Amino acid sequence: MEETPKRVLVVTPHPDDAEISCGGTVAKWVKAGAEAYYVLCTDGGKGSEDPKMTHKRLAKIRLKEQMDAAAVLGVKDVVPLGHPDGELEETREFRGQIVLAIRRFKPDVVICPDPYRRTFYFHRDHRITGIVTQDAVFPYARDRLHYAEHEKEGLEPHKTPTILFWGAEECDTYIDITDTLELKVEALKKHDSQVGGLSSDDTEKWLRDWAKDMGKKAGYEYAEAYRKVSFRF
């Protein structure tokens, strides 16, 4: 996938998932002129082993970390939905929130987790996010009579031609992030509550090794990999 979309929407289950999985791609496209937006599905308020940490306090910390990380990548807006960490459900309300974002931002590409893994356990929030986002893109955001209440807000249906699923077992699309790997690393380091237990060198080595493995499959020094789904309208 060599072309740069005009607008990209990332639907991320938790703070830090997007930076880990597609931060280099987002930074690359933003540098090339794209507008990038995030929908942050949960508050991330359960991801701590600190016995003194509370859900409310951690959620506040992680939202600030996500905003800072998104700023490093050049993301234009972050929409926090505020669902409790670990409690995403496949509901009309949740799907409608993503449909609303699609109709508002009108992305050419949506990036989200692949919900269909078999050989590696994915956090339940990731699976639910992937399924609901796929359905939101097609057919719900496309058809005006789904969530018709959006018309009262001045939002029209939108046809997104492409989804890129991160974390796929069978990837078919590779994005060269050699020039934006440093931004990806810098963005992830903003999530101190999650990677603070690792040294900066450990965090960077982990990301570099992962990106290098993906790059080898496509002839790049560093890459991010996806399963691409295209829709014909």
How is this structure best described in words?
The protein is an alpha/beta fold and 233 residues long. The chain has a single domain, classed as Rossmann fold (3-Layer(aba) Sandwich). Helices cover 41% and strands 18% of the residues. The chain contains 7 helices and 7 strands. It has a 7-stranded mixed beta sheet, sandwiched between helices. Helix 4 links the parallel strand 4 and strand 5. Helix 1 packs across helix 5, helix 2 runs antiparallel to helix 5 and helix 5 packs antiparallel against helix 7. The relative contact order is 0.19. The mean pLDDT is 94.
Key terms:
single chain; alpha/beta; Rossmann fold; seven-stranded mixed beta sheet
Task: Provide a concise account of the structure shown.
It contains 7 helices and 7 strands; from the N terminus they run βαβαβαβαββαααβ.
Please state roughly what percent of the residues sit in beta strands, choosing from under 5%, 5-15%, 15-25%, 25-35%, 35-45% or over 45%: 15-25%
The CATH homologous superfamily is called LmbE-like
Evaluate the radius of gyration: 17 Å
Our measurement of the CA-to-CA distance between the termini, rounded to an integer number of angstroms, reads 20 Å
How many distinct domains? 1
Q: Which range best describes the helical content: under 10%, 10-25%, 25-40%, 40-55%, 55-70% or over 70%?
A: 40-55%
Q: Got a strand count? A: 7
What's the pLDDT, averaged over the residues? 94
CATH top level label: Alpha Beta
Strand ordering within the main sheet: 3-2-1-4-5-7-6
Q: What structural class should be given to the helix and strand makeup?
A: alpha/beta
Order of helices and strands: EHEHEHEHEEHHHE
Low-confidence stretches: none
The global form is globular
Assembly status: single chain
The major β-sheet equals: 7 strands, mixed
Helix segment count? 7
What CATH calls the topology is Rossmann fold
* CATH-derived architecture: 3-Layer(aba) Sandwich
